[in-house]
Amino acid sequence: MLQSSTDTREKATSDSHTGISLLAMAGKILACSLLNRLLKHLEQGHLPKGQCGFRAGRGTIDIVFSARQLQEKSMEQHQDLHMAFVDLTKAFDTVSRAELWNIISKFGCPDRFVKIVTQFHDGMMARVLDDGNASNLFPVTNGVKQDCVLAPMLFSLTFSAMLIDAFSEASPDIPIRYRCDGKLFNPRRLKAVTKVEDTVIRDLLFADDYTLNASTEQEMHLEMYRFSTACENFGLTISTKKTEVMRHEKKLHQFHLRCLRCILKIRWQDKIPDTEVLERAQLPSIITTMRKAQTRWAGHDVRMSDSSIPKQLLYGELSQGARKVGGQRKCFKDSLKAYLEDFNIDITTWENAASDRPAWRSMIHKGTLDSEDQRSNGAKDKRWARKTLAENPTNSPPTLWCQTCGRGFYSRIGLISHLRTHR
């Protein structure tokens, strides 16, 4: 069945239609059985380590973190980084089935298993629903079944084979050196000769989306050419759509409070401070929530295997390039160190504590409550001091004077701002 988009403006375009497979209960049981056998076979390492979508114990957030770490370290060590975010058009619906059967066979699946999967997809029919009316049935000969538990893993196998075909020859990549034996906040540990390991980062996979990384524009052109050629060979089409994610902590804090005021029906005329709004909602500030989430994620990263990309990037650095002399740009590790100190967690032993997941979550929860209390009390004290000064202005004379007009000021910043009016 092909279901159209709910947006009436996009119903005329074919890209707004999504295929949905309506499987009988027996078909769902068969698909789950095939998936379980396929997962046992794939534990032998047939999928690339950069693929974190559709896999147990992993998620696309792992790759989002890896991409941010790669950007941070490239800026810190003054190395050029080119990233191409590739989106495939109708990826699940355009997979060549003939190629797919060959792929799972070459990956070592038994002929009987391949035959069952083939028969599970043969004879597939579809119809289009439009305003309650159904079209005539027509055959579907390409793609995997949407809404089937077996479809994501079959697509991952196709994607893995396509990457092997695209980059079978030596290809440019980003060299990384890392050391995962603890002491994250000591950068000198990466200067050792024997205990440091090397790896390379070329691609990051967000489920059915893809990211290519290169050091130069020429290398990126070469990688994109190889990738696009492989896509054509496997019946896939590259879309030109790109995605960009931005974060600004201050604006996010304002948006969070604005939403809470709307939910609690608090108007700005009521003159209710932000601290009281959070107390009424029984919620911490968005800044504390973000710090808690990032600290919990750091513990999750520590518990990963040393072969995982997120851990290698967190504990490593680029093999080439050097940091600038003087102050450094603040990165994730700097923020994490400040959060640990704010939560009263020892930065020298936090990795041992993070290895115990329940204890780590409990420790962070307690630190979050204490940090939020300190932040809230500090905001209340500042508001009280500001209101007290407004109600009881000082009678002492100004200490700073404008040499042009003779106006007096109590602070240097006020005088400097005033001098701009005489320019």
Automatic annotation (TrEMBL):
Keyword Ribosomal protein (UniProt): no
C2H2-type domain residues: 400-423
Alphabetical keyword list: Metal-binding, Zinc, Zinc-finger
GO molecular function: zinc ion binding
Transmembrane segments: none
Native organism taxonomy: Eukaryota, Metazoa, Cnidaria, Anthozoa, Hexacorallia
Cleavable signal peptide: none
Xref: CDD domains: RT_nLTR_like
Keyword rRNA processing: no
Domain Reverse transcriptase: 1-302
Name assigned to this protein: LINE-1 retrotransposable element ORF2 protein
Cited PANTHER family: REVERSE TRANSCRIPTASE DOMAIN-CONTAINING PROTEIN
